[in-house]
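Consortium newsletter contribution from the modelling node. Members have asked for a concrete example of what our holo predictions look like. Here is one, prepared for the zinc ion complex that several groups have been discussing at recent meetings.
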Amino acid sequence: MSCKYCKNGATCRGMCPKHYMRWVRHGDPHMVKRPSHPVRIVLPVGEIVDKYQAGLSLKDLAYDYYCSHMTIRKRLVAAGVQLRRSGRPRDPARP
Ligand SMILES: [Zn+2]
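And here is the predicted structure:
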């Protein structure tokens, strides 16, 4: 008999040890625990700061460096960069 959720041999309740432990711990054999320490990717912060100050947006930079705009944002803040307002610049003619 094999596991209901994968091809491994089932040892208990029709599940392999991996899926059984997930079921015991989380009540869901499909639960996958997220790593508690997110992998901090290495980014060339100096380069990102230069590009941001040259006018690239957080989203442009995120795309260039294969990470989220929040990661870019955090790195810029950590580097002491004053962030621009997000979105379209306000039209001073219209309040
Ligand atoms: Zn399994």
